[in-house]
Every structure is written in structure tokens, then in C-alpha cells.
Amino acid sequence: MLQSILTAIAAIGIIGLLFGVALSIASKVFAVKTDPKIEEVRGVLPGANCGACGYAGCDQYAEAVAKGDALITLCTVGGQKVINDLSVVMCVEAEETTRQVARVLCRGTFEKTEKEYAYTGIKTCTAVNAMYNGDSSCSFGCLGLGDCVNACEYNAINISEGVAFIVEQNCVACKKCVAACPKNIIVMVPVTARVTVACRNTDLGKKVMDACKVGCIACKKCEKACQFDAIKVNNGLAVIDYDKCTNCEDCVKVCPTKTINIFVQ
Amino acid sequence: MKQYKYFKGGVKVPHYKNSENAETKIMPIPDIIEIPMLHHIGAPCVPLVKVGDYVMVGQKIGDSDKFISSPVHTGVSGTVKKISSVLFPNGMNVQSVVIETDKKQEIHPDVKPPVIESREDFIKAIRESGLVGLGGAGFPTNVKLNPPPGKTVDYLLINGAECEPYITSDYRETIENSWNIISGINIIMEYLEIDKVIIGVEDNKPVSVDVLTDIAKTSDKIDIMSLKSKYPQGAEKMLIYALTGRIVPAGKLPLDVGVIVLNVASVSFIAEYIKTGMPLTKKRITIDGGAVNTPSNIEVFVGTYIKEAIQFSGGFKEVPKKILMGGPMMGVSQFNLDSPILKQNNAILAFNEKQSILPEQTPCIKCGRCVRACPMNLMPVYFDIYHQYKDVEQLEKLDIMSCIECGSCSFVCPANRYLVQSIRNGKALVKAGGSKK
Question: Which of A201, B29, B330, B397 lies deepest, with the highest CB count within 10 Å?
């Protein structure tokens, strides 16, 4: 009785020992060389896996950074802190970047625009946009059914009065709303930019006025008022160059339709 | 002759053919008509006239050099007032020519019977006539009649099924213009060297079946089959199966199985065109629905505003809540009564408040009725689900592109799911290649 127990223990013990030796040899011989830097970089990244950097996820971005293929400034979710941390890990100089945020270029609320028809169907912007460019009188404006809200994982978009707006403190610039919007009215701007041309309508004067009370009619008054050459009317729409804009608000004062306004949270 | 093949699926829809005994009334020339440059599947035409030009009846006012396209003609004489644009349901702004009519109806010197000596001449003449499929889809007929080399066509099928509720414009065509239909068939048989013709008509139109049987007796090459009335019997693929037993594979055209399908109105127009040379500028449409006074059939010029057509037919009984271009199953809703009538429109339906209630959708209960109703053997329930998840791979795997958007699934759904709309959105996702995740 005792002997058979001992034999069993001995047999299992020897087999275990053999496997242990074999595994320890194999781990030395077949070792896969990994860059310890990848682990380190990955530890610094926030792990949101949002894809805003252009890579499939944080792991892939970490690999690219460790190899030196990617800039350290691409992670928008982490912001300046991650850039600073990455610069320490990668031994490169930290660059100063301005935080980017999304902004909805439309203020065509229920008051300002009209509904062309009563829409009853699937409640998504993409679906209503497939019918006569949407039910709003402005065919460029926000449809207010919240495709961007559904795309946002950070609770940074709300719909109010039929128009989406961004809660900037929550926005991490992952650009998912930009891709989700069928009207392409969400753009990325530096967080310091306060003056916004809240319109994407490229039609001309009268047509815009018929469609929306706060649409850009391309009157070029803002272009003349700007001392810094930062605002240009192109293709029926005023566009601000934020590299030159100083938030002086001269254009806001002259805009007859109040399309240009100061973004307040 | 009775139908011998029955396609699987489909639904029984109420017929509501209120206007079947309404003889076609010819609408007088309106003061202004607006002719869009796109009446067909394919590339839009470019206007050939300028503001201020004088145009005559039958003059070509728009053309395109693309293969799948069809020229546009004016049916009225008058002055071009402006080049405007019309918003199409898919969101496209299409150029249009607005003509102020002078009611003199002077005929353009180019309008004369075409000289046809060969098959090529015939197809060229059909292109010049501006004919598109008058059944509703508007596929340029010259492309349809011109099989690529190596493909032989042995059947010509004439579609008189008209399976959509309300619409009776093809029915009136068969009764009022039956001899045109027969001569049209003979012309096509002669030039395309086809010797088997089958006319398909649903059995809810016995008069039409009788009339066509009489004329089919004139030739032993022409057969007529009465089809069981079941929606969508008049869909091209269903009709081919019912009449010949052939199945058109996914992504293929009827030409690939040796079949050409033409609508009765198209055939009748071909005969008319060969005789007179007057291009396609008029269209018979059915006006019906709970919000109109008199259900009727009227002949209008292409480009007449919807509002005027309805006014001529008897006007509104009550405020319309929903206007459909086409039948209730596949028609597209229209919110602007100042839109022009297109070549391929065959009905305008105006529904009152009560008829246009669309119930809110409730969660899918996975009963599978849509699967049973689908004539294309697809699974709409999964299209609905995967469309919500934007799963392009699965949508493609389940062959969403084969859907003919007949609406049978939405019609039977007990949960009122908007299945056709989600399929349309799903198709758009697949076409975009899933780049928008």
C-alpha cells in the first residue's frame, strides 16, 4: 500500500522535474526578444483604445512609438501629461501641443430652421439624411438625431433644441463624432479658439436666409473687419484660420446674421 | 395559359384598384413645366438649351454621352425660362429646364418616323426616343435591348402584372392601347430576332387578360399567362421565374438568363414611336388615395407639377398627409407638391391623416415572418440587427445587395420594424465599404 503511494509520488515528481528542466531550457533557447520599451510606453498610454492616433489601439501605437515610427504627440486622449511621460520614456524632448476639441459648426436650432416634412422612420441622422438630405430646411445643418452622441464614448456630446453641442471638458479629440456625422459639420479646433463660424452652408445669400436664420450668407463683412487676415470667405462660407486668430471678436461684432459667435461652455 | 411556377414568399396585399374603370383623361397643357435632366438609373443629362431659347414639341433638351443614360425631350413648345434644379429623394440636386408654354404646340422638324434597316438602327432609334423602363425603375430601354456580344436572348417577357395596390395605369394601357402593344411586340421580335413572347398579367384583372388573349391569338409566337395575384409578382426576377422557370443569379441581369423584360407601356410606346417618331414626353399616371376627390387616370406631359396634375384630376378632398410617387409598397414619399412628374412615375397617391399613420417600431420578436415573406430568400431580420451594429461583413455575407426593396417584410412585420429603411441604410454601409465605423 505505502509502496504504491511512494511510487506514484516519485513518478509524478520525476516527470515534473523533467518537464521543468525542458521548459527552462526552451525558454532560454526559443526566447522571443521583446523591446522592454514597448511595455514601458504601453504603461504610460491611457488604454482607451479609441484609435484617434491612427493606430488600431494603444498596443499598436506603443509598438510604433517604441520603434520610433510614430510621433509621441499623437495620443489626444492623454493630452500633455502623456506627451511629457512619453518624452521621459523615449528620451526625447517634450513638445508643447494645444489640446484639440471637437466643435459642431451649426446653430440651426428648432427656432432658427424649419422642418420640411414630418419624418417617421429610423431615428438616426444617417437614415434621415438619405431622404431628401434630411428633414431640416437647411440641407447642410445638424439633424439632431444624435449619431455623434451614440459614437461618443466620453459623454461629451449633448443634443439641445435639435442641435448637437460639445461638452469640451469631456472631449478627448478621438474624432469618432467627426466620422459619424453624415453632414460633416463636426470639426477639430484648438481649445483656445473661442470664435467660431457656426455654419457649413455653402449656398448663397437668399437661399441660406430662407433655410436658416443664423446661416452664413457670405457677405464678407467679417473678412473686411479682421485685422489679422485670419478669416476668409471661400465657396460661400467664412472660415477662420486659427493660427492667425487672436480672439479679438471684431468679426463677431460685424456679422449681420450672428453666425460668427463666441463659443461658451 | 395558367402560370406554372410560383415564387416562394411574397404577400397578399389588398388591391384597391379604385381607378380601374376611370378612362384616361388628357390633361391640357400647363402654363409652366419643369423637366429634370434625370429620369432614369444612370448618369444625368446635360441641358442642351439656354435661357430664352424657343423649344418645339419633341425637341431634345438634354443628353449625356454616358452609356447608361437616356436623352430628355420636351413635349410642349415655348420659351426656356430658366435652368433650375430639382431635389431628388436621394438628396441629389438635378438640373432642370423650366419652360413657359405658348400652347401653339409646333412640332420640331426632327420629329419624324425613324428609318430602321437593322438591329443597330433599331437600338439607336430607341435611345433617341428617350424611352426608359416605364414600370417604375426607369432603366434605359436601349441598354436593356442591347445584349452584349456572346449572349443570346430567346424570350421576350411583357410585364403587365401591376401588382402594387391602387395603380391602374398599365391596366388602362392594355385596354386602351392593346393594338399598340401587339405591334410593339412584333417590332421587337422582328429586329431582335426573338421568337418566343409571353405576356404576364395578374388574374385580378380579367378584362385585361381577355383583351390580351384575343390579340395574342394573332400570332402563335405570343403566349399570355395569367399570374396569381401576389405581391411582388411584377418584380422582374419574380416574373421571369413565373413565366419561364429561370432564376436570375444574384448580381446578374435578366439578359444573363436570355430574357428581356419590358413593361406593357414601354412596348406600346415603342410601337407609337416607330409610327410617329414622337419621343417620350407624355405619361399616363394614376391619381388615387384617400385624400383625393376622384381616383383617375390622366395623361400628363413629363415635367408637369404634381400639384397641377392633382388639381386637374379633381383636387383634394381633405388635407393630404402623405404623398407617394408610385405605389404604396415601393413608392417614394414626396413633400413638395411643386415637384415635376418623371417619365417612370406611374402613380401619385395622396393619403389622408388616417391612412398615413406609421406605428412606432417595437423590438423584434424574432418570429421570422419577414423571412417567410421575402421573395428573394433573404433574412431581413438579420439585416435589421447587423445594420444597427454596422457590421458590414455580416451584411455582405447575408447578401443584402440582392434585396429588391419590395417591402414585403415591412408589410408583414408584427413589430412594425422599418425593415426596408434599415436595409437601404445597410446597403449604403456596404457600398461605403465600411469605412465609416
Answer: A201
Interface test with B, best of A115, A120, A124 (most B CBs within 10 A): A120
Residue B320 with chain A: CB contacts under 8 Å: none
B255 and B398 co-located in one domain: no
The verdict on residue B137 lying in a domain is: yes
Looking at the structure, tell me whether residues A239 and A128 fall in a common domain: yes
Contact B418 A126 (CB under 8 A): no
pLDDT tens digits for range A195-241:
999 999 998 888 899 999 999 999 999 999 999 989 999 888 999 99
Q: Write out the residue range of the structural domain in which residue B417 sits.
A: 369-433
Identify the helix (H) or strand (E) that includes residue B240.
helix B236-244
Handedness of CA B244, B250, B252, B253 (dihedral sign): positive
Q: Report ipTM for this prediction.
A: 0.85
* Residue A129 sits at the chain B interface (C-beta within 8 Å): yes
Q: How many domains in chain B? A: 2
My answer on whether A246 and A139 are in the same domain is yes
Mark yes or no for CB contact B421/A132 under 8 Å: no
Q: Give A124's contacts in chain B (Cβ within 8 Å).
A: 425
Q: What is the pLDDT of residue B123?
A: 92
Asked whether residue A186 carries a pLDDT value surpassing 90, the answer given is yes
Q: What is the 3 state secondary structure string of chain A? A: CHHHHHHHHHHHHHHHHHHHHHHHHHHHHCCCCCCHHHHHHHHHCCCCCCCCCCCCCHHHHHHHHHHCCCCCCCCCCCHHHHHHHHHHHHCCCCCCCCCEEEEECCCCCCCCECECCCCCCCCCHHHHHCCCCCCECCCCCCCCCCHHHHHCCCCCEEEECCEEEECCCCCCCCCHHHHHCCCCCEEEEECCCCEEECCCCCCCHHHHHHHECCCCCCCCHHHHHCCCCCEEEECCEEEECCCCCCCCCHHHHHCCCCCEEECCC
Residues A219 and A110 placed together within one structural domain of the fold: yes
Query: Quick one: average pLDDT of A30-51?
Result: 84
CA nearest to A182 within chain B? B436
Is the minimum CB–CB distance between B50 and chain A shorter than 8 Å?
no
CB contact B421 to A (< 8 Å): yes
Whether A130 sits inside 8 A of B425 (CB atoms) is yes
Cα of B118 to nearest chain A Cα, Å:
43
Asked whether the beta carbons of residue A139 and residue B91 sit closer than 8 angstroms, the reply is yes
Query: What span, in angstroms and rounded, lies between the C-alpha atoms of B392 and B401?
Result: 11
CATH number at residue A63: 1.10.15.40
Q: What is the mean pLDDT of residues B157-170?
A: 92
Say whether both B255 and B382 belong to one domain. Answer: no
Kindly report, residue by residue over B186-207, the tens digit of the pLDDT.
999 999 888 899 999 998 898 9
Chain B residues touching A132 at Cβ < 8 A: 87-89, 91, 335
pLDDT of the residue at A4: 92
Letter string b/e over residues B272-287, b meaning 16 or more CB atoms within 10 A of that residue's CB: bbbeebbbbbbbbbbb
Q: In the prediction, which pLDDT does B437 show?
A: 42
CA distance B333 to chain A (A): 9
pLDDT-derived band at B436 (thresholds 50, 70, 90) equals very low
Supply the CATH number for residue B160's domain.
Answer: 3.40.50.11540
Position B56 scores a pLDDT of 94
* Residue A24 maps to a domain: no
Give the best residue of A115, A117, A122 to mutate against chain B (max B CB count within 10 A): A122
Give CA–CA dist B305/B307, Å, rounded.
5
